[in-house]
Design goal:
Elements (H helix, E strand, L loop, with lengths): L20 H8 L3 E5 L2 E4 L1 H20 L3 E3 L4 E3 H7 L1 H4 L6 E3 L5 E4 L4 H7 L11 E10 L14 E11 L2 H21 L4 E5 L9 E8 L5 E5 L6 E3 L20 E4 L6 H6 L10 E8 L2 E8 L6 H8 L4 E3 L2 H8 L16 E5 L8 E4 L5 E6 L1 H4 L4 E3 L18 E15 L1 H6 L2 E3 L5 E3 L1 E8 H11 L1 E2 L2 E2 L10 E5 L5 H16 L4 E4 L5 H11 L3 E5 L1 H5 L2 E6 L5 E5 H15 L1
Parallel strand pairs: 3-7, 15-17, 17-20, 27-28, 27-29
Antiparallel strand pairs: 1-2, 4-6, 5-6, 7-8, 8-24, 9-10, 10-21, 11-12, 11-21, 13-19, 14-15, 14-16, 18-19, 21-24, 22-23, 25-26, 29-30, 30-31
Length: 570
């Protein structure tokens, strides 16, 4: 292409609301424009990068035997009802009706549709199957932000594996995991696989691929030795043992007027340090008041609460509900002596603890000397707390770091959840009917485009890897009115096109500085500059965007050198 014919509306300044570097640079470089909150137009440069990211993903999916589909983006209510997700997806699902009043949804994901298609697979001999698509998804995000990192419509590669048993699923999951590692390497992303919560997707396990970035929305607990990495929604750590004094024969109630917080209870006479307090959180789970207990110096992790209960109908109790069922207002709540009808979950850090202090379920009163095993009827001992930086790795004991990350991909072992809902079965080798077991594997195309921009830029602009750059090389003509320069540029342009190089000829009648700045802003990996002085010596300037190095190369050699360089980096 010739730059003079291209629509590349570069900007000197980014919009004031563009906080993330990727958002600013993709706007300034003329890659994207916002239509409304969470909805972006991909301009020609943006679409080129987007499609190149998709092609890398497509190639690696095909390499493991993936078969590409294209499914509808609009779904009937019935398939989501069958899986139980019509209600549980909540407000993030875009819902609508057709002219006949039929309830429909815009697809957030496609597990139900693919499981329905798999009804046509009849025998174990046809398994495993790897099916995928690159399709638009719609999610009514409450707070779209950071350009393409958090949007309401986006292209995603979602793939699905179908196997006859758990062993088959494990093998398919591993093959996708290895494919993802290759994809992110080709995209130039240092994406680390970490343990993750499966959330609303369900299943027996999942891994996220995380890219370190302050623009991300996820926190990951990482061991510096590489022994352990997990999203904080899933992470665990080892805590030092605490030796408690022997408890009294029975807990003692004592007055705590106006004490409403852990800190306030620490500071009053006769109070207790935070690590010797029990924090009681009251939730309503499937319509029932339920208690969740953590140590006073720990924070309850809401995703762990959801994962632990397996419920999607869950919320914090209102003060009036806590008062009705426990007899006190927040600040004086506890689990000692509560009704047997109230289920109690307690964090492992409280297991075996004695001489603890907690609310007495009477305003302005607390219990001390609580022996948890004796005084509290814990139904479930589970992991409920947030991991903090500096706590010990569960594998090697090294201090954990908490790192902010962008989620670049997520893979799930779904098991039989969706196949059971849709009645997807096959006959096994013994002629018996078996429910198919599934895996689900997602990569957001636009989010990965933004992640590359977020992690690969400098003050001058973007630095795209060759694999996804909008153009691999720019030929910049210093003086377009110089006939010798233009003749050399046209000849070189044709040679590179013939060699399969994605090249743009900057034939604009602009000052050289303007052209150089534009090429740097939009992140073209290589620039060949043709000017009258160098041309007299039979040379051109060859610049590498990533390193900033510039060398003089013979005009007769430059096409072969550039072709070899680019081919080695695709």
């Amino acid at each position: 292409m010739r730059w003079s014919n291209l629509f590349i509306p570069t900007l000197r300044d980014a919009p004031n609301d563009a906080e993330a570097a990727s958002h600013r640079l993709l706007i300034r470089g003329g890659f994207i424009r916002q239509l409304m909150s969470g909805h972006y137009t991909l301009l020609p440069l943006g679409l080129k990068v987007h499609e190149k990211v998709a092609e890398v993903v497509r190639q690696e999916m095909n390499a493991i035997g993936g078969q590409e589909f294209l499914l509808p983006a609009m779904h009937p209510k019935s398939i989501w009802e069958a899986s139980g997700r019509w209600e549980t997806m909540g407000d993030e699902m875009f819902r609508l009706q057709d002219r006949k009043g039929t309830d429909l949804a815009l697809g957030m994901t496609h597990e139900e549709v693919f499981a329905t298609l798999a009804l046509e697979v009849n025998s174990y001999k046809q398994l495993p199957q790897f099916w995928y698509q690159i399709q638009w998804k719609f999610r009514d995000e409450p707070r779209p932000k950071s350009g393409l990192l958090r949007v309401r419509e986006f292209a995603m590669k979602d793939s699905y594996s179908f196997d006859v048993d758990q062993a088959g699923l494990d093998a398919s999951y591993d093959r996708h995991r290895e494919a993802y590692i290759k994809i992110f390497a080709r995209l130039g992303l240092d994406a680390v696989p970490v343990e993750a919560s499966s959330g609303a997707m369900g299943g027996s396990g999942s891994s996220e691929f995380m890219v370190r970035s302050d623009a991300g929305e996820d926190d990951v607990a990482m061991c510096p030795t590489g022994d352990y990495a997990a999203n904080v929604e899933r992470a665990s750590s080892a805590l030092p043992a605490i030796e408690d004094a022997a408890p009294p024969a029975a807990p003692e109630k004592f007055p705590t007027p106006d004490v409403r917080t852990i800190k306030a209870l620490e500071e009053i006479e006769g109070g207790a340090p935070a690590d010797r307090q029990i924090k009681t959180m009251v939730y309503v789970v499937d319509g029932n008041v339920t208690l969740f207990l953590v140590r006073g110096d720990h924070q309850l992790n809401d995703q762990k609460v959801i994962d632990t209960t397996g419920s999607t109908d869950i919320r914090p109790a209102k003060p009036a509900e806590a008062l009705e069922h426990l007899g006190a207002n927040p600040g004086s709540l506890g689990a000692v002596g509560v009704s047997d009808d109230i289920v109690i979950y307690a964090d492992h850090a409280l297991e075996g603890r004695t001489s603890m202090t907690t609310g007495a379920n009477e305003d302005d009163w607390h219990w001390r000397g609580v022996d948890i095993a004796r005084d509290i009827n814990v139904a479930h001992w589970v992991d409920l707390r947030n991991v903090s930086a500096g706590e010990a790795c569960i594998h090697c004991g090294s201090p954990l770091e908490i790192i902010r990350c962008i989620e670049a991909g997520h893979i799930f072992k779904l098991g039989t959840k969706y196949a059971e809902a849709m009645g997807t079965t096959v006959l096994d080798q013994n002629g018996k009917t078996q429910t198919v077991t599934m895996g689900s594997y997602g990569i957001g195309i636009g989010r990965n485009m933004a992640a590359i921009a977020e992690t690969s830029h400098d003050e001058a602009g973007l630095i795209w890897p060759v694999s996804v750059a909008p153009y691999e090389v720019a030929i910049t003509v210093v003086k377009v009115k110089d006939e010798a320069s233009m003749e050399a540029a046209e000849t070189l342009y044709g040679e590179l096109l013939d060699a399969g190089i994605d090249v743009v000829l900057d034939d604009r009648d602009e000052r050289p500085g303007v052209k150089f700045k534009d090429a740097e802003l939009i992140g073209i990996p290589y620039r060949i500059t043709i000017g009258p002085k160098a041309l007299e010596a039979g040379e051109v300037e060859f610049n590498e965007r990533a390193t900033g190095t510039t060398t003089n190369v013979a005009l007769s050699d430059i096409a072969a050198q550039v072709t070899a360089e680019i081919t080695s980096r695709r």
